[in-house]
Amino acid sequence: MTLSGVPLDEAFLSRFGEKAEKAKKMLSPSGTIELGYKFARESNGWKREYEVRPQYVAITYEKFKYPVTEVQGSVKKTVTSVDGPSTAIDLRGKAAGQPVTLIGKIAGEGPDPAIELRLAGINLPLDDALIAALPGNYPDIIRQFHSTGRADLTAKIVQQAGCNLCDNEFRVEVREAKLKYDMFPYQVEKVKGQIVVRTTVTDSSRPVKPGEAIRSFADRDELILDGFSGTHAGAAIWLNGTKRSVPGSNNRLLTLHIGGNSCPADADLKTAMGALKLSEMWSTFSPKGSITFSADLDILDRGPLPSRPEFDPPFNAASDLKLTFNFLGPTVTPAFFPYEVSELEGWLQYKNGRVDLVNFAGKHGASRLKLEAGEVRLYPDGMVWANLGGLKGGLELKPLIVDDDLLRALPNKLRSAVSELQLKGRAELSIRQLVVLTPPDAAGAVPPPDPFQVSGAGFLPTSSLQSRISPPYLARGQSPVGAAPQRLPPSFLPPPTPLPSNRPDPVVYWDADMKLDGASLDTGIPWEDVFGAVSCRGRYEGTHLGLVRGNVFLDRAVVSKQPVINAQGQVRVAPQLPDPASPGKYLPSELEFTSIVGTLFQGLVGGEARVVLAEPMRYDLWLTATDVQLEDLAKHHRLASDADLKGTAQAQLRVYNRQDPKTGQWAVEGLGKIDVPQGRMYNLPVMLDLVKVLKLQAPDKTAFEEAHATFHLRGDRIKVDQLDLIGKAICVGGSGELDSSGEYVKFEFYTLYSEILARLVNTPIGDVSAFLSRGLFKIKLTRENGQMKYKPEPVPAVTEPIKAVADRLKGRPAKTTGK
Q1: Mind listing the pLDDT tens digit for each residue in 25-73?
Q2: DSSP for residue 457
Q3: What is the number of alpha carbons within 13 Å of residue 487 lying toward its C-beta?
Q4: How many helices (H) and strands (E) does the chain have?
Q5: CB atoms within 10 A of CB 114
Q6: What DSSP designation does 463 have?
Q7: What CA–CA distance (Å, rounded) separates 98 from 150?
Q8: Residues 6+ positions from 803 with CB-CB distance below 8 Å
Q9: pLDDT band at 805 (very low <50, low <70, confident <90, very high)
Q10: What is the DSSP string of 649-664?
Q11: DSSP SS3 for 90
């Protein structure tokens, strides 16, 4: 029997009682249908069929409320004398003008029949009608992606017979779409991928199966984002992810795996990071350029507390976000050390307001930077605490180039100190640990915590240099900080004095080595071709330099044009003291070099030095040299091939600078002494040694066996108070001055024959004046037109200068005469 043109109105549906109500609730039909009824007896019993054939009906399925029109096909219910009822569904229609099908069956009676249905549609618009059809709160989740475009839809609804539990799966195959996720609003175009939503539906007023107790059912709903890809500003992006419940809570966890190739670090990415409450991290590193990356995000969607079911907890990045980020390519300028690093690559993790850094590498110009491990903590008031290096590895900068960019990155006081050293040439920096604390954006925004103290047990292993030099360079009570404090804001280095509210500089602790490989620097005297290492620890307190201690070990160097090898020493900088004349300011830092020892021409040189890092730099150097081999000195200064210089020399030197009270100009001053107690000096063009070479020529074929000199330095002038040369045949004594270039020379020498000098051993000067004047003459030495000129003059009488020379030489006759 067939009945056509039946309207699906209330009058018709009410005739069929409860079953019609269920059908109405399930499909919300409208339009006209054709009804068919068939009854037949078969060998094993009877069979009854009810068939509904829609004639362009509109329906909306209750488990997927997506309006479908122009529905055709059939819904056939079959009842037999043997089996329970079974309904076969085969419908086709249109949704948003695109073809849609619903195929499947429903078997059994009662509230929990067996259900197996499949809804499919192709080329459907990604509009709100499709999104709203998803069950539960998934429409709100999907709407957060603001997706547009086209999609193919597949929905599966499955329920086991007699089971109060329906498993639903919805697959949306997206193509040529656009999306922009609220929690990470990064516009992605040409999107394709698959959204999978799986839900379970149960009637909570009944048990899952008959006879069981009513119990709460674990949340098994999940959202899957599978195989997504797209572009942003022409750069390729890919994404996968899930959103599932967190066992034992009413929270849900969104996990995203995102990657991109050459993505611009643009304003869109900055905005997206801000939506994740990571604006502080963006501003801390200030990335630019392009990034190739892969990232894993865990975003916790907190449910309401049982005590406050109406309250929707806000997103808190510090507790609700975990981000791991593997990347390469961008240029960054860290706020805590504003030194631009390009082509940066590495791995970082953000969790609980903390950023962990691993295997970072980049470059700045010709320098290569490498960081094995680090930690950065970000605080709401803008404060940043960074701990780079430590037990997991350090920071390397090879080569170290002290350019304007590096100087600008240093805090003000450290900048001037490093600039004064004028480090140039090949050097490498290895920082075992660098701890930086930047001030907050607004002083006083967060109350300061109690001081965080770290005992001396927190010391890291010191450099291998320490084993070479004793005592160790560590300052008592000085320590790095192994971990940031757990309260806000961090305070790992309690300042010794109250910090002004407008303090711009960070607090810095460092533990570093610097390798010198042919470098040059200036500590008041020039250092060239320096090979070796410097190791130190120190603190910069934000307003002034704190305690700094270190060791120096040099394989070789040219110090003030003199070659020194195997030099070592200790350096100490005391904490800066307040300037009593200028409140709020500090006196300049003073470097103290102690226990200096090295080898100079096979002899031993040692001393101390003090350098004041002021403008201009002030310094004071004391050196003593013993057993200096004159033959090596001659080779170094390339004396003439027929010169003969042998023996050992002893020397003392003090060089310093001070301000002239009359002119206000700073000038070099100093004094020194040189002694050659026994040696051979033959055909020499050189008479002054370690400070400045004095070129002078003694009479030909004359050998001297002793030499003694004392001198003073002032500016570019060297005043020689005493220069005595003692030989078996002749002795020369005198004084004079010259400039540091050797262009100005003015000396007067008096000569004595050695046999005359021998008579002075036990004879007063007055008693030998007669014969002394007969064997005495004076030599005036000057430089004229670039040539050394000697002008001998006879001396008719014993003058005071001659007596002074004779008195000095008188003390040497025992060696001169062989007695």
Answers
A1: 888 888 898 989 899 988 888 989 989 899 889 988 887 888 999 999 9
A2: G
A3: 8
A4: 14, 37
A5: 16
A6: P
A7: 11
A8: 765
A9: low
A10: EEEEEEEEEEE-TTT-
A11: strand
